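Protocol step 6 of 9: fold each sequence in the batch and record its structure tokens directly after the sequence line. For illustration, a two-sequence batch is reproduced in full.

Sequence one:
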Amino acid sequence: MSKTAIVVLSDPKEGSDEALGRVFNALGTVYEFKVANEEVKIIFQGAGTRWPEILQKEDHPANALYKAIEDKIEGISCACADVFGADASGLDLIKNNPLPGTSGSSSYAALQNDGYTIINF
């Protein structure tokens, strides 16, 4: 069985079709792995920590897809949420990468050591 970690880095503040396309494809990829009963998780990192608050709005075009994969959300990078002013939106804050001068970020090395293939959007 494969293990895949999807990391969302795109910035919703761009307001572009590209940013929406990236998060939509990230959510769709998580859903595809979930339906295939493959181990998958999604992490919001960097400016991508701004997405959950937006995706939780019922009128957002990707809300239904977001709700369909909520059980696969690992959380958001704590340091990135601090830097980019993101609301945790009820999600877990990930701090397993103790970057100097921060509250801790999510760790790519830990994902790799745990056997995850990492896909960035």
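Sequence two, same batch, same settings:
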Amino acid sequence: MACPICNRPTDKAYRPFCSRRCADVDLGKWLTGSYAIPAGQDDAEDDDSDRAEDSNGKLH
């Protein structure tokens, strides 16, 4: 198995990484939002479709 950060062989102590440095780089990416999946326009529209409109056209 290769380290997902630098592709070196993994170290048993830091698996799935090769070193503490690569583990810290990965943690930093999670904390800064680098691994976030962007939401598309379709996702936002789906949220509104769950709401019911009253007779005046207002969403609830």
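Proceed to step 7 once all outputs are recorded. Observation for sequence two: The mean pLDDT is 83.
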